[in-house]
Amino acid sequence: MLPWQYALAAACGLVIVAAMIRAGKLAGRSASWALWGGVAWESALLFGLYGLWQFAGSFTVMGKSGALPRAQWLWDAERVLYLPSETAVQKPFLAHPLLVQACNLYYDVLHFPLLGACLIWLYAWHRESYPRIRTTVALFTGISLLIQLIPVAPPRLLPSTGMVDTAVQYGQSVYSWAGGFDADEFSAMPSVHAGWALIVAIAVITVSRSRWRWLAAAYPVLTLLVVVVTANHFWLDGIVAGFLVVLVLVVQRIARGLRSGKSSEGPQIKPVRGDLSMRS
Question: What's the pTM?
Answer without folding.
Answer: 0.83
